[in-house]
Amino acid sequence: MTHFDFDEFEKKLKKVTQEIFLSINSKNVCGFSLFSDSDAGSILASFNTISHLENNWKEYPYEDKEYYRWYPAEWFEEGIPNEELDNLSLKLFKAEYFDDSFMKHKEKVFKTIVNVLKELKDEGLFNSTGNDFVLVFYATDSEERQNELKWIKELNKEVLFKEYENWMQTWDV
Prior knowledge:
The protein is of the alpha+beta class. It is about 50% helix and about 15% strand. The chain has a 4-stranded mixed sheet with strand order 3-2-1-4. Strand 1 (about 30-35) and strand 2 (about 45-50) form a beta hairpin.
């Protein structure tokens, strides 16, 4: 079994995430996301701009506003091209583990990604953004609702978390 070096992964992810955010910060950013697939075999970044968000709200007034604020697939750029993130994704994809440890590996990958975002937030990386800035981690094609709720709470101001939580409660109605 090949050992997956989570410390190295976290260190490199933090560095590249900071570089990506600093490269886009001048674009009036109102949202930033790191995301993975449901098998924790990739890592990508997305961002949204205030103007893109407001245009979506105007173009689709019948949709939930929260959908465009919180769902990175509708953001200005989903899957920012980045060679370093591609290399990290390749390491995730090639990670080997015993069948019974898959869930533990996946949980640790997700936790590491959320921790990177939290650390960068705590260090002030996102301070230049507005009060409505959202920070998101999610796993595509996954039913991780309780984890998503926990991640959104950990990464955002209470008022924004409440907005997300209230919106999430409408999903099954």
